């Protein structure tokens, strides 16, 4: 007989009704309990990377090239999904030293600020478009560039950078119209390119990415607080690196479009700008040798690793042994979901076990359905585990609370998911074929809906597995 004491303690810790010695937990109830654990672990991961937790654990004098008391004034600008929450926390730290503030967040974010995050009272928060830019975002990006240009040599421009900042802070470069950029962004999003390739293109079509905001602020000091939403935490990629030297070139941007057969699909002005830049007829984005970076510091304050560490703590507190914790997960979403399940099912744990993965998958869109990469991870997992006998759950969620153009952060799957779906006339293979994971999981109430979290450190995948005979 296997020792089940850890499992019994874990069930009681979840405040479930007490079980008698002879009672058993039915498979659906057991899976529901395990899914609840997965959701709690995901919530713990997200909470650890929200602005108040991240910034209050840092030394404010490390936010800038010089101690904050050195500056006669501090201008604060932010772009990205965490910008509003970060600015509220920064306001509390800076007090009267903050002379102005301006942040751009996605539409609807100001109404959904978590209660744990202080709301800005001095700075202005505006809403822009994501994942495609809007006119409101362009106006906001122009204000941010104006703040940078107005900063004096004795001032600090404090820049709050997080995922989504590229689209939110889009200010078209000379010769570019918003329509040109929207079409290009849309094509890139559907092509399956990774974020490094996507931003190599986007930073060469705007006035903010690729270190250009730091150049606009010279001769002021620039300090950036950065929450990473990219695999590997390359700061030149996060929100297109507005204050970071750019290692990419116009030629790199052209190569991305050519290799994805998008060169003839983008507009003429986009082709003209990139091709003339590649021929040296316009200045490159500032690289490591640019003088503006001599007075710039960039500080990484939150990463996917930070979230995974909190997830591990939460899993262990619920009685799970964490078997694997891996960052830098990439690849086609459905294939990643299948691979996760295979790794879990090949193991034979004799106690409740947790697998944790972090990163960001991609979806090559071939259908006309509705969904996001995390929902597609979960749908790929559902098909891979439909014959599993061991109680197993795979949850995939975006830490920003939003997955693709939906109101969900992701979804979860169990061995009963496909059976439940077919019972309500949802064919899992057809939904996967059509990139239509959202209505599939919505029909069986398996969508993860935390709402906007005001942070973004990519995705967290939580796999939980119980022994095949968890009861005595």
UniProtKB/TrEMBL annotation:
Q: Which residues form the MOFRL-associated domain?
A: 38-274
Region Disordered, annotated ranges: 1-30
Q: Name one GO cellular component term.
A: cytoplasm
**What's one Pfam family here?**
DUF4147
Highest rank taxon of the organism: Bacteria
**Which residues belong to any copy of the MOFRL domain?**
354-459
List the molecular function annotations (GO) for this entry: glycerate kinase activity
Q: Which InterPro entries match?
A: GK-like_C_sf, GK_N_sf, MOFRL, MOFRL_assoc_dom, MOFRL_protein
What is the protein named?
Hydroxypyruvate reductase
